[in-house]
Amino acid sequence: MHRHLSRRVFLGAAVSSLPLMKGGVASCAGQDQITGVEQDTKANRRSAPLVADGATKKTGWIDAHVHVWTPDVERYPIDTRRYSVDDMVPESFTPQQLMAECQPSGVDRVVLIQMSFYNTDNSYMLDVIKNYPGVFAGVGIVDHHAADLARQVTALSAAGVRGFRISRRGEDTKDWLTDDGMAKLWEIAGRSGLSICPLINPADFPVIDQLCVKFPETRVVIDHFGRVGITGEIVPAQLNSLCELARHQNVHVKTSAFYALGKKQTPYKDLLPMLRRVVDSFSPQRLMWASDCPYQVQGRHDYESSIELVGEHLNPLSKADRQWILRDTAEKVFFNQVS
Questions:
Q1: Angle ∠(278,284,288) on CA atoms, nearest 5
Q2: 279-304: pLDDT as tens digits
């Protein structure tokens, strides 16, 4: 049932028991990748086994934004109108490959974002959620013009989807303000306790602001700082516009995709002023850290540097505040609980 449903939707073990081996991760193609970022076209040589049992940090951190996919395109077809198998680089980024990156940094739960290769077919994401109960939550993207939108949202929510991504895909986001389908999606999400997750640019903040005024009960989670800093510069006016959205109590922000923002160089400390500004504006209770894997683990970038920016370098910040950003906010929003 889920596979039939998910093809019309857009865009049992604990983690510690997964037989994970660290696989190579190369450059990736797809709309999910932040454009304008240098990518390594050669496969990373991360072939060492996962750390031995007991060596993984036990922190319970949550990575709030990751994409996964499989080379099995027979069972999980890709959208050949937009992509070919040549675009699937690396060939795979499975839960095993993902957790080989996550576990050494103390991450044991993950929010999966539907990969654009699959377009309207969420089958792979839903199967991953089902196969590892309690480990993964999902964000899908529905066709908000579908006649059975409410039924789709209900079914996906029952399968572990906790939010719905909206993105430009060549459209003018201003059209969202007058789109009946978009209005229906926001209304259903607000009524159902689900999140709207915009993948947007800084120029789109005024549109989100107006939608938040219209749908104040709907929770919003903005991806990747709204791409402030994607040009290599943290533009003050853009950061101000992002922080103005904090006046809406249901707006959250993912502090994520460090590899693609500012100087785009580890250890990403040039992003600390922006991080501190959003902490001051939104509070840690409305921020969540995420890697945007597999893009975060390509070329000269690595997983540990991403999580360390918040976990070790974001001073002054209390232990409790770091826990909100690294675990509790995502746990509350996407796993419906707080440790």
A1: 85
A2: 999 999 999 999 999 999 999 999 99
**How many Å apart are CA 339 and CA 324, to the nearest integer?**
10
Q: Quick one: tokens of 31?
A: 């709309």
Burial of 316 (0-12, 13-18, 19+ CB in 10 A): exposed
At 332, which helix (H) or strand (E)? helix 329-334
Span 2-334: which CATH code?
A: 3.20.20.140
Q: Residue 48: helix, strand or coil by DSSP?
A: coil
Tokens read off for 90: 């690396």
Check: CB of residue 313 under 8 Å from CB of residue 322.
no
Of 52-56, 140-144, 201-205, the one with minimum mean pLDDT is 52-56
Structure letter (DSSP) for residue 328 = I
Structure tokens belonging to residue 274: 């922006």
The three-state secondary structure class of 59 is coil
Instruction: Tell me if residue 266 falls in helix, strand or coil.
Output: coil
- 196 Cβ partners below 8 Å, 6+ apart? 163, 164, 166, 185, 186, 189, 218, 219, 220, 221
CA separation for the pair 250, 282 (Å, rounded): 10
